Amino acid sequence: MTLQTVPTDTVDADLFRQLLRRHAAAVVVITAPGEPATGFTATSFTSVSLDPPLVSFCLAETASAWPAVEAADTVAVHVLGQEQEHVARTFSTRGIDRLAEHGAWRPGPDGVPLLDGVLARLVCRVVERVRAGDHTIVLATPVAGEHGLGEAEAPLVYHSGRYVALRHGE
């Protein structure tokens, strides 16, 4: 058996971004209660475990939404449909009240904002936060979920630096 050594150097930030642009990811908006309640657009959402059910997402600790997410016991994950690029853009815009700008939401369990008309929604209880570089990985257990809430049948996807829609049936 031959031991492989791991190089101590890493790819630079520009190459890292270019490489990850080749990875397609579903677009979600994650909301958190607080004063003020907030939300942000993410492509880092993923399932982690079926037993117990766990999901994760990552957020930079410098993000404007971080204080609310850091304090939240409950968050909501909203899977956006292919016609909701405007929602993704609203929740990724800096310096605005994103929920007020979006408008179509209501308070859910523990005051977490629930967006209307999304492809699917999970209400999750935060179980752990793990620091990872300049981000924190948030692990959460879904406690409620709904799908078929909007007209879209396909998710909004982010690839190669832009939002794209999958063609239905592919």
From TrEMBL:
Superkingdom of the organism of origin: Bacteria
Q: InterPro entries recorded for this chain?
A: Flavin_Rdtase-like_dom, NADH-dep_flavin_reductase, Split_barrel_FMN-bd
List each copy of the Flavin reductase like domain by range: 20-165
Provide the alphabetized UniProt keywords. Oxidoreductase
Instruction: Fetch the Gene3D superfamilies from UniProt.
Output: Electron Transport, Fmn-binding Protein, Chain A
Name the chain's protein.
Flavin-dependent reductase
